[in-house]
Amino acid sequence: MKHGKVRDLREDHDLTQRDVAQLLGVKRSTYTMWELGDVNFPIEKLVKLAQILHTNLEYMLGISIDKRAIQYPDDIDIGFIGQQLRKQRLKLNKTQSDFAKTLKIHQSTYSYYEDGRTRIPTEKLILLSITYRISLNEICGAKSNKVPIFN
Fold first, then answer.
1. How many domains does the structure of the chain reveal?
2. Angstrom distance (rounded) from CA 47 to CA 34
3. Which domain, by its residues, includes 91?
4. CATH code, domain carrying 83
5. What does the pLDDT read at residue 37?
6. Nearest CA among 39, 110, 100, 45 for reference residue 77
7. DSSP secondary-structure letter at 72?
8. Which of 2-6, 80-84, 118-122, 143-147 has the lowest mean pLDDT?
9. How far apart are CA 145 and CA 20, in angstroms?
């Protein structure tokens, strides 16, 4: 999966791949693969990149037209994402099995995502966001997202 506007935003900020890799604390080759979509870009790094590029996750991924910067908590990790997924799922009155079917995975695998035992792949987060109209910004702890998130 190509990651929306990541490259364009990076270039708009006159940053090289090496610059961004350094800011994210990864090798340039790793960042390059993420930017090209060859390897799953971890959501925690995408959130950090959104902050570096003064925008928000949904805009950066190409699922929103609102490019305003959003402040995210500093402590985003797989446990935090799992808690947020559970909160959103319950708000929608869905079961883990419902979400697992959407993602075409076993319910036990989805359970691991919510429990923070396994990182949910970013592509699967995007699929949940689009299918259930869940805000990725909200999942990542943004305080509010009052603008409609979908194009």
1. 2
2. 13
3. 78-139
4. 1.10.260.40
5. 82
6. 45
7. -
8. 143-147
9. 26
